[in-house]
Amino acid sequence: MNISTYTITPQAPYRFDFFRERIVTSSNSYLYDIGDQHLGRAHLIDGHHVFVRVSCPNQGSDAPEFHLHVEGAPDEAVAEKAMRLWRHMLSLDRPLYPFYAKMSGDPVLCGIIDQLSGLNLLLEADPFESMILSIIGQQVNLTFAENLKRALVELCGTRIELNGRSVYAFPTPEQIARLQYEDLRPLKYSQRKAEYIIDFARGVVNGEIDLAALEQMDNDEAIATLVKLRGIGRWTAECVLLFGLGRPDLLPAADIGLRNAIQHFYGLDHQPTEPEVRERATAWAGYESYVTYYLWTALGLAKAQAKKQKSTGN
DNA sequence: GGCCAGGCTAGCA
DNA sequence: TGCTAGCATGGC
């Protein structure tokens, strides 16, 4: 088997173990091969199924060195595309220090940054995958969302066997477009959710939806384009810009998780309204995505901690 | 048992 | 233009 290896040393602070933790606790963990010191995933690149494995022996360090192995690429060009895909997914070309410097006047955020120093954005592989996952994630809790996502991937994604490992590549637009709505109903999809997902994939396949064009648009323009599609509201479009395109300045002001986190960490006596979130976020200009991500993550940790304390009676 | 989940649409006034 | 029931299910 042909394996290409790349050695990567991100700019500190950078915590590889935070990505692992993020994946384990997310509703997308089924997409990954997760080990103590590595992460892996299958991808379809230029028609070739490749498996990317990132290993990091010193993953708890805030200046880690890690190795990215690409298996199954027929030539160097495909291997390099896989490598660049993971540079995107792991936000390797986005140093954190400008964000930290910008937030230095906010004691609440500084406390969270101290706790999460080195946490960078874990992005989805591409806008298509991001859109499908975001539509599935609308409204439902994370446990149920994971069941739905896993069922879709196992229904129509390509299963790949590599060195005894069995993993699925995320379905292509063509694979989802071929489904019928009733194929998803037994998987506990609502009729509407099935329609939104399959219709979106069909739009991509027949060329009505141009995902590549989103890259050239500013945030407002891209959101306005996406929300014209049935099943895609502002929240979903914002998720795609944040997690699919990796826009650093995206503010999901209506998101319930962000509003809960602001109330919690800033000690508000009410859940902030969307205009109140926008007002507060003027201080975050340029890094809204990062602040949102840190607040979401910190609230998740606080909830997990509270749950743990409750279960142990402390 | 009821309400809320990292929402959205269709239908109604 | 603005409001709300309904969607499917799991967790608390």
Structural description of this entry:
The protein is an alpha+beta fold and 314 residues long. The chain has three domains: 3-93, TATA-Binding Protein (2-Layer Sandwich); 127-244, Hypothetical protein, domain 2 (Endonuclease III, domain 1, Orthogonal Bundle); 256-312, no CATH class. 50% of the residues lie in helices and 13% in strands. The strands form two sheets. Strands 1-5-4-3-2 form a five-stranded antiparallel sheet, covered by helices on one side. It has a two-stranded antiparallel sheet with strand order 6-7. A hairpin with a 3-residue loop joins strand 2 (33-34) and strand 3. The model has no long low-confidence stretch (mean pLDDT 93). The structure holds a DNA duplex (13 and 12 nucleotides).
Helix and strand layout, with pairings?
Blueprint: E1 3-8, H1 16-25, E2 33-34, E3 38-45, E4 48-55, E5 66-71, H2 76-89, H3 97-102, H4 107-116, H5 127-136, H6 142-156, E6 158-162, E7 165-169, H7 173-177, H8 181-184, H9 191-205, H10 211-214, H11 219-226, H12 234-244, H13 256-266, H14 274-281, H15 288-312
Helix pairs in contact: 4-15, 5-9, 5-12, 11-12, 13-15
The protein binds a DNA duplex (13 and 12 nucleotides) through residues 134-135, 137-145, 147-148, 188-193, 196, 230-236, 239, 252, 254-258, 260, 296.
